[in-house]
Amino acid sequence: MPQADQNSLSPSAEGPPVPSSAEAAPGTTTNVTSGAPRPAHVRPVPLAELARRLNTAAPQGAEDASATGITHDSRAVRPGDVYAALPGARFHGADFASQAASLGAVAVLTDPAGTERSADTGLPVLTVPDPRGRMGALAAAIYGEPGRDLLQIGITGTSGKTTTAYLVDGGLREAAAKAGELTGLIGTVESRIGDERLKSERTTPEATDLQALFAVMRERGVTAVAMEVSSHALVLGRVDGCVFDVAVFNNLSPEHLDFHPDMEDYFRAKRQLFTRARSRAAVVNIDDEYGQRLVTESEVPVTTFSAEGHPDADWRAQDVEVGPLGSTFVAVGPKEESVRATAPIAGAFNVANALAALTALVAAGIDPQTAADGIAAVPGVPGRLERVDAGQDYLAIVDYAHKPDAVESVLFAIRKVTEGRVHAVLGCGGDRDPHKRTAMGSALARLSDTAVLTSDNPRTEDPLAILATMLAGAAEVPAYDRGTVLLEEDRAAAIRLAVDRAEPGDTVIVLGKGHEQGQDIAGVVRPFDDTFVLREAIRFKQEEAAAAPAATAPAAAAANSTPIQGTDAEDR
């Protein structure tokens, strides 16, 4: 029998292999005691009814048994659960069926390969060719179709899912507050049930956990939910059992090509959300070429939007004013109605995210002004152009940008609001798509006055090998067009290097990890928070400056302001 930490592995929401059927791999941080949130009250569903829904014969022993829950994790089984034993790359979930039985499982859902091993437990076995493909619908049935009682808005795309979800949640909260109701949020950073916050392990939860979360939301009075939907979630069936009232498409650019063989496969995965099986209405960005294509291929009615003000868009942005802390614009609708709107997060690209949220909310039946007011009230998004303020006289920011297009967009946006120089820190994750590393190193060197190349989450790769690839990209930028390039493997030291070079009017920006609270090095996840490390580096510099003799201050300032030929802000 495999040990508890050697379970089969499958791709997670946005990349890394993580446990799919039973136990966590070594070094991962998971809650092994309580599992995902579960509703307090569930009407038992007879196993014979579940067999009928699966279009399979009721197994022996099903006559007097009923289910009150379902999980794919053998550690998280509760009395009354169906245990979904899924095939994996290293092990089969059926290898853990005895553990599930000991914890009170009433049945096993598995494939033919897992049937005999599961039957050895004495539990009734529901056998289907593709248990992962049936798991979502079965979970929805067990929990009483909770999604039908929620207004569901799902957001997909390469960049901006998290920010757009928070902005949609802001509009939903504004509308819900007027009705005395609550809202929910599900995404990369966290899940929210009203004001209760839950840590997220992945962008989109597994189908069993997602349907349980919907049931908890319904039980606690939530009436609407904003949710990120990753391509992994669509391919692996994590949103099976969901039909979104509104599906939003932001954009598509090269990413996750370690999971998708090419961009066409990536697009087809995203397109699944815009079928009648998964949504009722679509909101699509026609400033994006894949969005233009999606308009013609969507199976559900489409409302379009354009932050660039395309006249053919149903909703378009006009009179855009970009500021250091956010942007304002006028959203013009299909009947030439207009509403003053605010993107409460810096960066011109967040106008597109705010307009996407506004359009989705209006498509969901919310008054445009109410939607705009709620979006404007969002205080920020963790790790998305998040300001770190320790009283310094320069701007300090943490952002999640971890792909070439996102790095470029963020740095262009920062350039527009920075009077002085830009000092940027960036690494590339190990065990991920290696093809983007050269482009990311190039973008950082080209668009920063100081480009500090460092580690992200090296995982099982050699950090120096990753840095060598990034450096090769930086070297492709002509010397006259690149900033000073520094290499520092230690991420905390790299952040200190950037802070040490900052002067009044400059910007220090730390890219790649955003909201993440750990760093994975050689399979060990160590606590690491970019915002905390950046704030501490700023404070240390301030303390050093305060302790230094006044006579040495000018010399120190001069040392920190060495001119970089061809890298002034005006040259970019």
Question: What are the SSEs and their pairings?
Answer:
Elements (H helix, E strand, L loop, with lengths): L8 E3 L5 E3 L25 E2 H7 L12 E2 L1 E3 L9 E4 L12 H6 L4 E4 L1 H8 L5 E3 L3 H12 L8 E6 L4 H19 L2 E5 L3 E4 L2 E4 L7 H13 L2 E7 L2 H5 L10 E4 L13 H9 L10 E4 L3 H9 L4 E5 L8 E8 L4 E6 L5 E6 L5 H15 L4 H9 L9 E2 L7 E5 L4 H13 L5 E7 L8 H11 L2 E6 L7 H13 L8 E4 L3 H10 L6 E5 L6 E4 L2 E4 L2 H18 L5 H7 L13
Parallel strand pairs: 5-6, 6-7, 7-8, 9-13, 9-14, 10-13, 14-15, 15-16, 16-17, 21-25, 22-23, 22-25, 23-24
Antiparallel strand pairs: 1-2, 3-4, 10-11, 11-12, 17-18, 18-19, 20-21, 26-27
Helix pairs in contact: 4-6, 5-10, 5-11, 10-11, 12-13, 13-14, 15-16
Pathway: Cell wall biogenesis; peptidoglycan biosynthesis
EC number: 6.3.2.13
Protein name: UDP-N-acetylmuramoyl-L-alanyl-D-glutamate--2,6-diaminopimelate ligase
Characterization of this structure:
The chain is of the alpha/beta class and 572 residues long. The protein has three domains: 45-143, MurE/MurF, N-terminal domain (Udp-n-acetylmuramoylalanyl-d-glutamate--2,6- Diaminopimelate Ligase, Chain: A, domain 1, 3-Layer(aba) Sandwich), CATH 3.40.1390; 151-377, Mur-like, catalytic domain (UDP-N-acetylmuramoyl-L-alanine:D-glutamate ligase, 3-Layer(aba) Sandwich); 386-546, Protein-Tyrosine Phosphatase, Chain A (Alpha-Beta Complex), CATH 3.90.190. 32% of the residues lie in helices and 21% in strands. Strands 12-11-10-13-9-14-15-16-17-18-19 form an eleven-stranded mixed β-sheet, sandwiched between helices. It has a six-stranded mixed β-sheet with strand order 20-21-25-22-23-24, with helices on both faces. Strands 5-6-7-8 form a four-stranded parallel β-sheet, with helices on both faces. The chain is globular. The model is unreliable at 1-34 and 551-572 (pLDDT under 50).
